[in-house]
Design goal:
The structure is a homotetramer. Chain A is built from 4 helices and 6 strands. A 6-stranded antiparallel beta sheet of chain A has the order 1-2-4-5-6-3, with helices on one face. In chain A, strand 4 and strand 5 form a beta hairpin. By secondary structure, the first copy, chain A, is an alpha+beta fold. Chain A has one domain: Hotdog Thioesterase (Thiol Ester Dehydrase, Chain A). Chains in contact: A-B, A-C, A-D, B-C, B-D, C-D. At the A-C interface, strand 3 of A face strand 3 of C.
């Protein structure tokens, strides 16, 4: 059985968009994740502040790294986000994902996004469906060779 | 007074992230917008399908182009999205934003995202706050120079 | 196999709170429902307008009658609602539920609530999980007696 | 200037639906509230468990008591709720509302609903618009008579 860290390492390796965002993993525990990124020039919207899609994408990656890390492939059903404070180029954003509910078929996660001044800039909530499939092959099946 | 099209043209010129996404405007009307983009390799997540942040970002841009185009600067308060169907590299996504409610201080918008087979892949709803400020200087103020 | 109407009739018979609300069924079709109710004095909040929970509850019943009526027991995972216009005592509210997505394990429904002047007063979106269990015993099992 | 407790007392006196629900106030602080209620027979849905509208209504009252208690009349724009665990007749529900964001024109609140076994049964998030009007006449204006 792969550890939560191994599952997320495997996910992030193939996750081209999270790589484009510059996401770095801070810590992974069962059902939880903490990640960060720096905000760059190409991430602004038409008002010169950071596009809402950037904060959402960071939160969505934190959500994915939290809800999948027990190696039970889970897909997002519904997510919502409140934008609380403008984000600017040069800000460092940290997303902390915590597990609200770990059901057999579904799960609910809350993700807080903070800037480098520890101000909450966005609040995200995600609901996922668990497929029951493995993301990473289990040790047992490997050893059986 | 600038037209809805002029407001959106001005927004998109400065919107570096919408440009990175490759967003093209299909049509703009008061309180509405239709835009599209092609899904590229750098937009996938750890499962080899398109990152949820990409569909969200497209919808969020459509939302911004719809809710701001009366030249009343509006900021997103809350948005939510349901993911209905996986999106793949090479897909063409179209976002259609319609106005549900045009209040004095707030507005509500519904955005449908379709793929090239006209399948609904995501449903987004956004609530904005209207600041009352202009995005583009009005003709009157220009003429006063 | 019971019809959508039979399933909803069976649900409403046992649904004490929908009865307290005074909900009447207008029409039921596969994956859809239309219901109405009159707003009474005991439904107001501390501002003398109708409590948000009343419009929500009407929408939630419409959602339940739509998402369960194929006789596949479904439970609400996440719902959200935008309040667009104040509702007053004496208003007649109609909820129209339409199916956005009918997946094997999950479904998404949009519910519009109108007052007697056909004004949209609230917009509700619900996501459900399908358990695969029947609500009403199928003809076959009855016949087997 | 009325205290948060005075504002909520005044609200609850006129709030017929919260009275029907049997809501009791546990504690009120600036931007926060804790309330409880007992679940009765007339609150069940068609499945014999408690109607989603009941948990929502309790949370919505907690939200209203939290976001209005600085005596700045605030109206709900958008609310969403995740249903995590079935609620049964005889359960005692407690709603704890905390302030996520206290902006000048808008606010965001998170409400947790627990049953008598301290299990989280629902998670609610609400966004409000602040009108700037007083709910309860201020002492100053009274004294000016």
């Amino acid at each position: 059985m792969p550890t939560p860290n191994e599952v997320v390492t495997s996910m992030l390796e193939k996750d081209a968009f999270s790589q484009w965002l510059g996401i770095q993993v801070l810590s992974i525990e069962e059902g939880c994740s903490a990640i960060k990124m720096m905000v760059r020039n190409e991430m602004v919207n038409g008002f010169g502040i950071v596009h809402g899609g950037i904060a959402f994408s960071l939160a969505d990656s934190a959500f994915a790294f939290a809800c999948n890390n027990r190696n039970n492939l889970s897909v997002a059903l519904e997510t919502n986000i409140n934008f609380l404070k403008a984000v600017n180029v040069g800000d460092e954003l940290t997303a902390i994902a915590t597990e609200v509910h770990n059901g057999k078929s579904t799960g609910v996660y809350s993700i807080n996004i903070f800037n480098q001044r520890k101000e909450l800039v966005a609040l995200f909530k995600g609901t996922c469906f668990r497929t029951g499939k493995a993301l990473v092959a289990n040790e047992n099946s490997n050893r059986s060779n």
